[in-house]
Every structure is written in C-alpha cells, then in structure tokens.
Design brief:
The structure is a single chain. This protein has 391 residues and is mainly alpha-helical. It has one domain. Helices cover 71% and strands 4% of the residues. The chain contains 14 helices and three strands. A three-stranded antiparallel sheet has the order 1-2-3. Helix 2 packs antiparallel against helix 4 and helix 11 crosses helix 12. The longest helix has 34 residues.
C-alpha cells in the first residue's frame, strides 16, 4: 500500500482542501511567531515561545475537531443547526450584557476556571450558515414564496443585529454570506433586489450619520471607532486608522518580491495587532509578494474546490453548506488582505487559520471539517455507485 493510498484512507475528502488547511496552518505558525515578538516582550518578559506555543496549541485543537467533523456524515449537521442556532443567539445576547472587552468592544464571554475567553460571533456565524443551508434545502418546493424569504430573513437579521453593535465588520461579512446563500438557494430575485436596495440605503445613511454625528459623549460605545475609520478612509485625516494603514503600507512596500526573510519584519514593532488584523502585511514584508500571492491563491483554490463540491453534490444541503462556509472564510480573508494593502478601511477581521486567535481557529477548523465531510460523502457515494455491477 503506497503513501497516497494510506493518506486517502485516513484523511478522507478532497486532498486539495487538506493541502490548503495544512499550508495555511504552517504559514500561520511562522507568521504569528514572528509577529508576536514585540507583544511577548511587553507582556511576557521576552518569552517569544509563549504565543508560538499558544497559537500552535489552538491549531492542534482545531485540527482535532476538523478531523472528527470530516468523519461525520454532513447530514447530521443539518439536525445540529436547529439546536445550536438558538444556543448561539442566546450566547450573543448574554455577551452584549456580561461579555468581556477586547479592543474596546464587548465581544467575548469568559469561560470560568479555564482563564480563556469565547468569541460567540464565531459560533453564531458557523451555525447560522448551517441553519440557512438546511432551511433553503428543505423548502425548495416553495422557494419563491415570500413566507420562506421572510422566515429565513428574520433569523439572519436577528443574528446580524446582535453581532453588529460590537463587531460591525463581522456582521457585514455574515450578512453578505447569507445573501449569497439566498441567491444560490434560488430565493426570488425580486425579494433579493429589495433586500440589496434596503441594505445599500441603510449603509449609506449610516455613513452619512457617522460623518456628521458628534461623538464626544459616546466614548463608551463603538460609534467613535466607526466614525474615525470612515473619516480616515475617505478623508485621510491622519487619525489612528491612517497610522495603522500607513505602517501596513510600509510593510507591504518594503517586502519586495521575495521579502526580508522569516522573522525579519520591522513593522511588527509599529503595527497595532500585527499578529491578527494586519498579519497579511507581515507576511508580505517577510515573504514578499510571492508569500502574499500564495495566501490569496490558497483561498481562490478553496473557492474552486468548493464549487466542484457544489457541482458533484446530489443534495442541495451539502452544496449550500460547503459553499456558504467556504465563502464566509474566503470573503473574510480577502477583506483582511484589502485592509493590509490599503484598498479597504480598517475592519479588525482576521485570516482564517493564519491570524492568531483561539475561538476563531477552532470554529474555522470545524468549518473546514464540515466542508471535508461533504466532500468525503460525495466521494464515498461515487465509489459505491462504481461498485454496483449492472444485472
């Protein structure tokens, strides 16, 4: 038995997606180890291995869950989504009132006794996509009715509204992903057009209001942060966001084609959150445009392989599930890249499996595991069909 046969028996599903997971994980370990040097000196007395081991530990936990999920028949996730979408909504409500603050936003719940925090939006995002995929696949016979559109839209808006106050960028990614799923799921284009128009008007009004509102007495909310980021992007007024993107552009510009080499970043000392929000800038600085293009191409390849899953999937649920999870992670990654190179305003979104994190790594790993579960089931069904000998 050769190596490829052994690998395919242990690690089932699309081998290209397995390769994407492995390469992204390795890139993340190298980038986080370099990007956290300054943080290690300020928080842990120069112990540069602390964040390296922490990040690697979360990756191993995530890969463990990924492996377990890829062995489960993806149809079970349809049933789980019915329960966990409401658990996620409950946790989002609790987070708004008793959550802990990270980067001036109440985004996480502390886990008693473990000394770690839990970012509830990551869980909600995962199970919302599962729930939408289930609902759309179960209602294909009356998919053009307003009732179907209304029922699923109410759940989407509820989750997005609970995430938005403290994590606006994530809520926009979630909403965009859900709209894409509604389109793929064949919701009436008339309803989607009205939704898109209402969304555009709402965003436009929000930008206008933020640019003209007085935020002096709103220091305990996220509104001043949103205002500053919009002003920075449109007016280049030299604020905090401008400083962040200036340092990011310096990292990108000095990286060249092949970069300065692993561990040789200088901008990690100046960039806020170089290990998460601006990790793509560190990757380009150390590995050049070659490294940056590699990360981008991996997510493009992920989209391509998931499109193959959509074509091959015999059930609508599997197709919608794989594509929804893939688009959510890829869109988030490309927004992070856009921020790093200065074509998008500062958001705070990370690159799945690459940026440092705990909850995000685990739930993104689960998302990859679910995608591989769909792929594995499709492969096994094809093998069974080939083994059937016609009478």
């Amino acid at each position: 038995m050769n190596f490829s046969t052994r690998f395919s028996r242990i690690f089932r599903g699309d081998p290209w997606i397995w390769a994407i997971v492995i390469i992204l994980s390795l890139i993340g370990i190298l980038a986080v180890y370099s990007a956290t040097v300054t943080l290690a000196f300020s928080k842990h007395g120069g112990n540069t291995e602390f964040y390296f081991l922490r990040h690697t530990g979360f990756l191993l936990i995530g890969l463990f869950f990924l492996y377990l999920c890829h062995l489960v028949n993806y149809l079970y996730f349809s049933r789980l989504s019915q329960l966990f979408i409401w658990i996620s909504i409950g946790l989002l409500v609790i987070t708004l009132f008793v959550g802990s603050e990270i980067n001036n936003a109440t985004r996480v719940l502390p886990i008693p006794g473990l000394g770690i925090t839990f970012q509830t939006s990551d869980m909600a995002k995962l199970f919302l996509i599962m729930y939408i995929a289930r609902y759309l696949s179960k209602n294909q016979e009356e998919i053009n009715s307003f009732k179907v559109f209304r029922n699923i839209l109410l759940v989407i808006l509820l989750v997005v509204a609970l995430i938005a106050p403290e994590n606006l960028s994530t809520s926009l990614v979630v909403f965009t992903t859900c709209c894409m799923l509604l389109f793929i799921g064949r919701i009436n284009l008339k309803y989607l057009g009205l939704l898109a128009g209402a969304g555009a008007v709402l965003i436009g009004l929000m930008v206008i209001i933020l640019l003209n509102i007085n935020t002096e007495n709103m220091s305990n909310t996220r509104i001043p942060t949103w205002k500053k980021r919009i002003e920075t992007f449109f007016q280049k007024d030299g604020g905090e966001g401008s400083y962040q993107q200036l340092q990011s552009k310096i990292a990108v510009a000095t990286g060249g084609v092949f970069g300065k080499g692993p561990g040789n970043s200088t901008q990690r000392a100046y960039l806020p959150h170089p290990y998460s929000d601006f990790i793509y800038a560190i990757i380009i600085e150390e590995y050049g445009w070659f490294g940056g293009a590699l990360v981008a191409c991996l997510f493009l390849l992920l989209i391509y392989r998931c499109m193959k899953i959509v074509v091959d999937s015999p059930k609508a649920f599997g197709a919608l599930l794989a594509l929804g999870l893939c688009f959510s992670m890829s869109f988030q990654a490309f927004v992070n890249m856009g921020v790093a190179v200065g074509i998008l305003p500062v958001t705070g979104l990370t690159i799945p499996l690459v940026s440092m994190g705990g909850t995000s790594i685990v739930f993104n790993s689960i998302a990859f595991g679910v995608i591989l579960s769909v792929s594995r089931t499709i492969q096994e069904n094809k093998i069974k069909e080939q083994q059937i000998v016609p009478a």
